[in-house]
Design brief:
The mean pLDDT is about 95. A hairpin with a 4-residue loop joins β7 and β8. The chain has no helices and eleven strands. It is mainly β.
């Protein structure tokens, strides 16, 4: 059974950094599409970044140059490093896994598995 668990969220001042993690279990290998999403109250869920099995990525314009994504296949963990955080980055962040490979880097949220989320709060 596939399970995704996010961690590492918290509160940080604007301009600061935070790294959140997504521990994945239940897959037989690491060849699957993953993504980070975020949602704040009153706003639609937004995809922050997608990463395919070749580690190609597609970042949202709002985070380009500030966020990076990486994965440690030995630890079955996906990371999102967030630098120069802004107030508008405040949201619940979710990781998602397993979307058709040919769709991975295209817009959309048709993932089969989702984590419960980790809250990121950026203050002045």
């Amino acid at each position: 059974q596939v399970h995704l668990e996010e961690s590492g969220g918290g509160s940080v001042q604007a301009g600061g950094s935070l790294r959140i993690s997504c521990k994945v279990s239940g897959f037989s290998d690491s060849n699957y599409c993953m993504g980070w999403f975020r949602q704040s109250p009153g706003h639609k869920r937004e995809r922050v970044v997608a990463i395919d099995s070749d580690d190609n990525t597609n970042f949202a314009d709002s985070v380009k140059g500030r966020f990076t994504i990486s994965r440690d296949n030995a630890k079955n963990t996906l990371y999102l490093q967030m630098n120069n955080l802004k107030l508008e980055d405040t949201a619940m962040y979710y990781c998602a896994a397993d979307r058709p490979a040919d769709l991975c880097l295209t817009p959309g949220d048709e993932y089969n598995y989702w984590g419960q989320g980790t809250q990121v709060t950026v203050s002045e």
